[in-house]
Write a structure and sequence with these properties.
Strand order of the largest sheet: 1-2
Radius of gyration: 14 Å
Number of helices: 2
Largest sheet: 2 strands, parallel
Number of domains: 1
Order of helices and strands: EHEH
């Protein structure tokens, strides 16, 4: 059985983000540019997309090292 799964790596400054069901980030603490932040926001599923997921694999980093990672952490602490 073939399920037509397609995996496409894209650069952190890419403008080719489109509909997706899974986004995987590796070492998100290192995404420090504004373009990387924009891509993260673009690839964040909206609440009605219940079958879309984000998997983030990273180490904790240090305070002040990654605004993006800290904002994700704070969002999680707030329950959003």
């Amino acid at each position: 059985m073939h399920n037509a799964t397609l995996i496409i790596p894209i650069a952190s400054d890419s403008k080719c983000a489109a509909a997706h069901s899974l986004v995987v980030y590796e070492e998100i603490w290192a995404l420090g540019s504004e373009k990387a932040r924009e891509l993260y926001e673009e690839l964040t599923p909206s609440p009605p997309e219940s079958s879309a997921w984000i998997l983030t694999v990273t180490y904790a980093g240090f305070l002040g090292e990654s605004d993006l990672l800290e904002s994700i952490y704070q969002r999680g602490l707030s329950g959003r």
